[in-house]
């Protein structure tokens, strides 16, 4: 994820036949968008007399969300790099038995790395959820729908990253390692989905017309 490029340039790259950026990168982008929206709600709450009692808490939440935004952006770049390593490994020579062995080992290592990055995205999604709960519960009520979108996006980010973990696990020769990674991802996605869905439901109920 290169922030120096325009959004249109990013969309053009995403639409092209190049494998990067792909779904893993978009998963990280959804996380960054969620953190950004959460930060916006904090900014719309800080400095308002009505929310003076939660101002210090919102300042703290804002700082953490800004940090998570940078984390997601970094993970997006790492996702591209991890996939490119997999592609490089597949291009290694395979004429001799020794070359085949080296190539297989490099593919396996690169694939584990490619599964690790979306797993990190999932962990970051889990870490950010308590902050999103705070802005849903205590943030500016006029921006409650924005807080809801942030919660929805973090659920999408996690589910998208989960699919990238699973597809890489399916490619591993060592299915013992694959199953260990998958089990952790299964537990994580269940918890994240439940929490993000609950926050979205809270928001939807709260913004219903009387």
Extract low-pLDDT stretches.
none
Known CATH architecture: Up-down Bundle
- Strand-pairing-aware structural class: mainly alpha
> What percentage of amino acids are in beta strands?
under 5%
Mean pLDDT across every amino acid position: 95
**End-to-end gap:** 42 Å
How many E-type strands? Answer: 0
The CATH class turns out to be Mainly Alpha
According to CATH, what is the topology? Four Helix Bundle (Hemerythrin (Met), subunit A)
Q: Let me know the largest β-sheet.
A: none
Residues in helix, %: over 70%
CATH homology superfamily name: Formiminotetrahydrofolate cyclodeaminase monomer, up-and-down helical bundle
- In total, the number of domains comes to 1
Radius of gyration, taken over Cα atoms and rounded to an integer in Å = 20 Å
Helical stretch tally: 6
């Amino acid at each position: 994820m290169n922030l120096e490029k325009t959004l249109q340039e990013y969309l053009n790259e995403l639409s092209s036949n190049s494998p990067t950026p792909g779904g893993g990168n978009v998963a990280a982008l959804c996380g960054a968008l969620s953190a950004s929206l959460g930060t916006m709600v904090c900014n719309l709450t800080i400095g308002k007399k009505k929310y003076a009692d939660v101002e210090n808490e919102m300042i703290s939440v804002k700082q953490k969300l800004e940090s998570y935004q940078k984390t997601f952006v970094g993970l997006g770049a790492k996702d591209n790099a991890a996939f490119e390593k997999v592609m490089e490994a597949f291009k290694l020579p395979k004429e001799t038995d020794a070359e085949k062995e080296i190539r297989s080992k490099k593919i396996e290592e690169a694939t584990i790395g490619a599964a690790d990055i979306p797993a990190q995205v999932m962990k970051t999604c889990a870490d950010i959820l308590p902050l999103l709960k705070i802005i849903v519960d205590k943030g500016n009520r006029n921006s409650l729908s924005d807080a809801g979108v942030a919660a929805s996006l973090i659920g999408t980010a996690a589910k998208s990253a989960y699919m990238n973990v699973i597809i890489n696990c399916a490619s591993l020769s060592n299915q013992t390692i694959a199953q260990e990674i998958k089990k952790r991802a299964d537990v994580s996605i269940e918890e994240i989905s439940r929490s993000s869905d609950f926050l979205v439901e809270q928001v939807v109920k709260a913004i219903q017309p009387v």
